Amino acid sequence: MKYSGLVYYIILSFVFTFSSCSKDILDPNGFRGKDEIKDNYLVLRDQTIFLSPSEKTEIKSVKKDEIIVNSNGVLSQKIKPGTVLVNSGISAGDSIGFYRRVLTISSVGSDLILTTKNVGLQDAYSKWSIDSRSDKFTIQDRFGEWTDNFSIDAGIAEVTFGGSINPDFDVQMKYKNYYFTSFFDSLLLAQALESGGFVDPTFHLHFEGLQLTVKGSVAVTQSFELASNFNLPTVLISPIAETGLGLYFSPLVSLSGKVTGTFQSAVYEKTVGPYDIDLSYTYGDISPVYTSTLNASLNPEPYQDWALSASGECELQLGAQFFVSVLGGQDLVKSGIGLFNYFTPKITHLGNFTNLQPGYDLTMDIGAGTNFFFDFDLIKDFLSSSWSTDDYKYDLFHLSAIVEPFNPYTSVDLNYNQALQTFTLTVNNDDPSRTFYNILINDAQITDLGNPTFNYNQEYTLNLPLTGDVINKITVKDVFSVGCYLDDVYVDEGAISDCQQSVTDEEGNVYCTVRIGNLNWMAENLRLSTAGSSYDGELNYESRLYGRLYTFDEIMNGYSYSESTSSNVIRGLCPQGWHLPRLAEWNDLANALGGFTVAGKNMKLGSAALWPNSSLPDQNTFNVTPAGEHYIWKSGSSAFGNRKKLSKFWTTRIGLLGEVTIIEINSTNGIGQNYNVNTDPTYYSSVKSIGYSCRCVED
Q1: What is the pLDDT of residue 382?
Q2: All domains of the chain, ordered by start, with CATH?
Q3: 181 CB contacts (<8 Å, ≥6 apart)?
Q4: Helix (H, G, I), strand (E, B) or coil at 95
Q5: What pTM was computed for the model?
Q6: Could you give the CA distance from residue 423 to residue 420 in angstroms, rounded to a whole number?
Q7: Which tens digit of pLDDT belongs to each residue from 83-110?
């Protein structure tokens, strides 16, 4: 990291009175109101030793849980178990502050070995007043500005899944005003809490006009999947007088998401702010109080200079944290605020064996955000844990563009022979300068008798790799053009079921069936097109895998609700000789597949592509796929949800209040039964209006 242009002024004129809680001491803040700037002032507890410069020379070493002092010095005569040692950490050559309680004392030669633990400010002081705005202490010129320019170059940071990300950014921070205050008085606090009076904030960090400018780019050099923060150096802006605390500044770079391929982003230059930000905590509160106000917006800028061969989505955050911490312990205890720009590129590859134009749909959401974090160990009280907020984001603008590279393809002819596990492929091209392409199955390159390249305008018969998964991707990739490739999918129907038995609906759709327990079930979701809904642009293989999504009225197909009882058999949309499953029949299915705690796993179609975060069955039987849901009161892509996450099935069981029993299969091993009348009354009157999957059982 490089730092330049750092300008700030420190004026230290600090007066201390070291004392116990004697009533004879005159508090310099005793005649000041709660909104007035107060003097910095500390009162030590009886067991506290505030280390003097001479006493510091007697300390030989400071470790995490241990302090070694000279046993022949003055300090060793004062220390006893229970003593609290305070080091302000601002003397020459002294950069580590600490608040330590002595637990045990032992002697080794001329050394006194102290085992210690970290404690909070109120363990050391019965009373304190810290105010960075005070005339007797400040870390800035209150009539000017503090500005720091620095550069982030994180280099190549290796990630867990073998890829890498290289952010290279310049960041500028500026703020008009800052202050930190902290007040505590054990006696007045008890009186105020008893009478319901006002208590000054124990901790208050405030910024006015905090502004962030980010300029730079990001390159993804390999495929990656991660959620990672980059550890960058922390900079001490200034110690806070003799308190052992300091105001710190730490650059923030984090990346999360999944990208397949490589890309180099355009160069960004964005400024957000000014922000007015507050983080405060008052003794006895359940949690801190925080506010953040963004006073500016951004102007959109067009895409430029993208170089990519990728698909996926990620989020990059760039900014900084400002926080108060114990000097030298900033990685352990800190409380403050984070400010960041975020960039969320989504890259969707375009082009398949039907749509022959390869390309990329680029979208980018850009905005600013804040977060807050607080470690209660900094100021101990009834709470002894850490606290933080989620990221609060302000979307500032959205960019979108279609990038289409050169298209060498005129047609693609693909035919499968499921029985022989082979396919024939011809990729045609009218451009004589383009001669070769590669073929990849599930991103693994295949060869023709050892040759990785294939000739355009020539038919090939090749063996299908036996992956055992139902969904397989096939890619045709021009050898000479970056990003010029077509993706398509083939479904290995043999991986679904041997399909020794089947049933046909009135449209001619054929469904594999399977006997489980005492019943014959459809092993696929109903896909009758006279009713129900499907995702926009759904491909043939997706229709076969997921079926259609039907409302309760649609699956009933004219039958009345009064006929939907625990004993009645209702055909609904099912083929002749089949009916909609009753709750008792679902229970029979679950028990036959190991019981409710494991039936969810055993019902799934054993495909890692469909259920990436789930345990899968040893053998495919019921073949549940995560078809998702349809919300008829919404439109476009938002009308569907939870595809590749869960599947829900109708039963014909309706309760006295009209509640419908729904069977849910998700990423867990179990099976769920939901009894719903109305999930969201703002938009619709009944859960019966949602589209779920449908299975049928033989009469």
Answers
A1: 42
A2: 22-128 (2.40.30), 411-494 (2.60.40.10), 500-698 (no CATH)
A3: 38, 130, 131, 132, 133, 200, 201, 204
A4: coil
A5: 0.55
A6: 9
A7: 988 876 655 556 567 788 999 999 998 9
